[in-house]
Amino acid sequence: MSQFSFFQSVSNYFDNAAQHLKYPKGLLDQIKVPNNVLSLKFPVKIGSKIEIIEAYRVQHSHHKVPCKGGIRYAMGVNQDEVTALAALMTFKCAIVDVPFGGAKGGIRIEAKNYTDTQLQRITRRYTTELIKKNFIGPGIDVPAPDYGTGAKEMAWILDTYSTFNPNQIDAYGCVTGKPVALGGIRGRTEATGLGVFYGIREFCRLKDEMKALGLTTGVEGKTVVIQGFGNVGYWSAKFFHDAGAIVTGIAEYDGTVYNAKGLDIDALLKHVKATGSIKKFKGAKNLPSAEGLELECDILIPAAIENVIHKGNAKNVKAKIIGEAANGPITPDGEKILLKKKVVILPDTFLNAGGVTVSYFEWLKNLSHVRFGRMDKRFYENSTTLMLDTVERVTNKKVNQRDRKQIVKGADEVDLVYSGLEETMISAFHAIRDTHKRKKDITDLRTAAFVVSIDKIATSYLSLGIFP
Ligand code: NAD
Prior knowledge:
46% helix, 5-stranded mixed β-sheet, globular, Rossmann fold, 16 helices, alpha/beta, binds nicotinamide-adenine-dinucleotide, 12 strands
């Protein structure tokens, strides 16, 4: 385990990066500290007993509003963890140019020990507390899913918020990651995993970087191991598998499954749904959970929880690239060992920003009250059809039906979401890489990502004219 708390680790990363920038200490301190911390204890009736539930919401930065960040249900939730995750959200939003301050929420419960009715009661009471303290609203603070939560919990949050705010026309924008039928956006469920895929794919496209690692260019044929088979882990695995990578190992809290020839990701999901575990999957070897991180592979994707790669196991990691899909999966001590071994780490502040990016699109959709693509899809299809017809007539040549279909297809909401996400991840990656290349004394991509981010946040504050 690390000698630092999670928030101290994030602050250390911040301090390392801040040394490369010339901003006054007061301004840097303001960027680093959490702006608003809400610690809650509230009673909920569970069975015949009253349970006192511990929960938090931290708004790390108000340099832009609303604040934005997921809500986590886990026994590891505490104020330090939520503060660290909120801080990461601030830096993440800045990196991908999402105009929000960072926030995070957490409820200290083991979700699987509660029935749906009990979870609903806890979620609604938590939301009511946020409303009471003015900690939620489309212009104030907008939660989203995180570890242990999903569209179901977001629907309960929306329903509670709109019940207390019946006249608010933008109420749907109070939370993202909602079911599509309740103002959600197509593509949000898979957004974080897809962003992880786009980010790593972009890195793998670079010939010089791949050569330095002794790898070929592209993701096709690369071996991938993933820790965590929840939302982010499953979707990351699926996108890599579909792109021709070989996902050889998946680690869960109760074991690891391994097949050197590659695992069938959808069949594995079916197996997990049917049996409740990844263990005993047909054709795969069963290994202890911790061994997953130490498997031979090109790309390792921790997509479960923080602090899983540390001083004790970093030396055993064999991957050449680590993509941080989870928040804070590597401790600072672990990172030192990995960097010495020349492992390339694509940092969480960049790599898992797909979720918040598409949440931003969902929030925009809620405020504009119109589905993306609705206004121009048919217009585009009609005008490109007319153009192709004209070209065919003038040239006396026919475009084949398959090409015609592709050319004239107008964009649906999900096409636009994927395209916006791809653009965001690729641009952010190159901004970080350019900083890394330009500043010779920056030795890793995490520091470069923090530099990019602090620079943008500092510019916002300086525009206020209150810092010298
Ligand atoms: P999830 O609850 O859907 O899945 C997490 C999975 O990890 C579960 O299947 C759980 O059993 C497994 N797990 C827990 N501890 C483990 C361990 N020690 N070893 C192996 N597996 C373990 O959560 P998620 O939404 O996929 O989030 C995963 C990580 O990604 C978290 O760090 C979260 O903060 C981060 N993240 C999530 C999103 C999002 O949109 N959901 C966005 C950005 C970052």
